[in-house]
Amino acid sequence: MSYARQMLDTYPRTLNVDADMLAATIDALSDCAQACIADTDADLSEDNLAEMVKCIRLCLNCTDICTATAGILSRLAEYDADATRPLLEACAATCKSCGDECEQHAHMPHCRICADACRRCERACRDLLGALK
Amino acid sequence: MSYARQMLDTYPRTLNVDADMLAATIDALSDCAQACIADTDADLSEDNLAEMVKCIRLCLNCTDICTATAGILSRLAEYDADATRPLLEACAATCKSCGDECEQHAHMPHCRICADACRRCERACRDLLGALK
Amino acid sequence: MSYARQMLDTYPRTLNVDADMLAATIDALSDCAQACIADTDADLSEDNLAEMVKCIRLCLNCTDICTATAGILSRLAEYDADATRPLLEACAATCKSCGDECEQHAHMPHCRICADACRRCERACRDLLGALK
Amino acid sequence: MSYARQMLDTYPRTLNVDADMLAATIDALSDCAQACIADTDADLSEDNLAEMVKCIRLCLNCTDICTATAGILSRLAEYDADATRPLLEACAATCKSCGDECEQHAHMPHCRICADACRRCERACRDLLGALK
To answer: Is residue D100 packed enough to be buried (19+ CB in 10 Å), middle (13-18) or exposed (0-12)?
Structure first.
C-alpha cells in the first residue's frame, strides 16, 4: 500500500472524496513527476538532441505541475473547487501533451515508460475531475 | 531589474507575449511563493493557532501553485494554451482565497504583507490571462 | 516495479552506482516527501495544535529536502561528490529529526506512518552515502 | 524591500541570526533558482545543443537545491545546525559548479547572467555558513 494511501486511511477528519480514487491520483502524480524528471535526464543523454528538445520542455512542465497538484490534493480540508478543478484540467492537459510527445519517441524505452506514466496520470486527473462535485 | 526580466531580455528566440508583463508575472509569483512560505512559519509562531489553520493550509497551496506556475511561464517555447490558461486560472483563484484569508488577520503584520503579495499575484495572473490569446 | 526503477533500467548511459540502491533511495525520498506533506495536513487537523507545531515545521523541511534530493539523484550524468555527499547528509539529518519528532506522537497513526517513512528514508540516504565513493 | 525581508521584519519571534544576512541569502537563492530555470530554457533554444547539456543538468540541480534551501531557511524556529550546515555547503557547491559551467558560455548573455546569479548565491550561502554558530 502506498504512503499516500496509508496516510489517507489515518486522516483525522472525514474525507469528502473517495479515498481509493484520491490515493490513486496522488500516486499517479508522484509517479509521473518522477518519470518526467528521469526522462528529462535520459533525453539529455541521447545523441539526436535537437529532436528531444520539445520532449525535455514538456517533461519539465509536467514535473512542475504534477508535483504541485500532488501537494494540493494532499491538503484536503481546504478543498476549493474554484482552484482544484482548473488545476486538475491544467494538469491533465499537460500530461496529455507530454504523453503525446513521449509517444513520438516510443522506440526509446525511457520515453515509452514516461508516456505510460503520463497517460495514467492524465486518466487519474480526469477521473477525479469527474468525481469532484 | 529582476533576474526574471534580465533572463527574458536575453532569450535566444522571439517571445510571443509582452516581456514586461511576463517578467512582472513571474516576479509576482516568486514574491507570493516566498511570502506564503514565510507566512506559514509566522502563523505557526502565533498563540491563537486554531484560528491560523485555514491560513496555513491556503498558504501551503499557494506556495505550491505559484512555484509551479513561475516555472512553467519561464518555459516559453512550448507554450500551450490548453494547459497555461487553466493553470493561470487555478493560480489566480488560489491567490484570491489565500489573500482573502490573510486579510482576515491583517492585524498581524505578516498576514497583511502576505495578503498584499497574494493580491498582486492574482492581478498579475489575470492580466496575463487577458493578454494571452 | 517503481517508475524510478523502470527509468533507471532504460537509462541510455552506464550508471556509476548500483541501480537497485539508487532506485530504492529515490523511492524512499518520494515516499517520505509524500508522507510529510500528508502528515503536515493531518497534524493541522488535530485538536492539540500547540504540540504539533514542531512536527509541522520539521515535516515541511523534510518535504523540501527530500523532493530536491530525489530530483538531483535522478540526474546521474553530472554527479558531483562535492555537492551530493553534503546534500545526502543534510537529507539524512532532516529525516532523523523529523522521524524523532513524529515518533513522539506515534499514538497518532498518521505520525507513526510518517516516522516510518522518515526512518526508511534516512537509512536509504546513509546506505547510498556509504556506497558513493 | 523584498518580500523575504518584509516577512522577516514582522516575524513574531526573535531570530537568532542577522535578519539582513538571512533575507539577502533567501533573495539570492530565489534569484538563482529563477535564473537557472530560465537558463535551462534558453540553453534548449541554442543551436549547439551538445555543448549545453552539462549546463542544463547543472541548472536543473541548482534550481532544485536553491528552492529547497530558500524554503528551509525561511522556517527559522526549528533551525537545526546538523541539517542546515551541510545543506548550505551542498547548495554553495552546486552554485559553484553551475556558475563555473555557465561562465564557460559567458559569450551567451543568458549564461553570463545566470553565472552572476550563481556566484552571488554561492557567496551568500558561504557568508551565512560563516555566521551560523
So the answer is: middle
Task: Give ipTM to 2 decimals.
Answer: 0.96
Kindly provide the b/e burial profile for residues B19-44, where b requires at least 16 CB atoms within 10 angstroms of the residue's own CB: eeebbbbbbbbbbbbbbbbbbbbbbb
User: What are the pLDDT digits (tens) for D92-130?
Assistant: 999 999 999 999 999 999 999 999 999 999 999 999 999
Angle subtended at Cα A104 by Cα A100 and Cα A105, rounded to the nearest 5 degrees: 125
> How near does any CA of chain D get to the CA of B37, in Å?
7
In angstroms, rounded to a whole number, what is the distance separating the alpha carbons of residues C34 and C24?
Answer: 15
- How does DSSP classify residue B107? T
In terms of pTM, does the model score above 0.80?
yes
Torsion of CA C93, C97, C102, C106, to 10 degrees: 90
C-alpha separations of B25 from B19, B22, B124, B125 in Å: 10, 5, 5, 6
**What distance in Å separates the CA atoms of residue A70 and residue C29, rounded to the nearest whole number?**
15
Q: Which residues of chain A have a CB within 8 Å of the CB of C2?
A: 31, 34
Question: What is the interface size between A and C, counted as CB pairs within 8 Å?
Answer: 111
Long-range contacts of C106-110 (CB under 8 A, 24+ apart): C108/A10, C108/A12, C108/C42, C108/C46, C109/A9, C109/A10, C110/A7, C110/A10, C110/A11, C110/A12, C110/C38, C110/C39, C110/C42, C110/C43
Tell whether B56 is within 8 A of chain C (Cβ). yes
B38: nearest CB among D7, D34, D117: D7
Q: How many CB atoms lie within 10 A of CB D17?
A: 16
Which distant-in-sequence residues (6+ apart) come within 8 Å of A82 by Cβ?
A: B93, B97
Q: Which amino acid is at B45?
A: S
C60 to chain B: which residues are within 8 Å by CB? 40
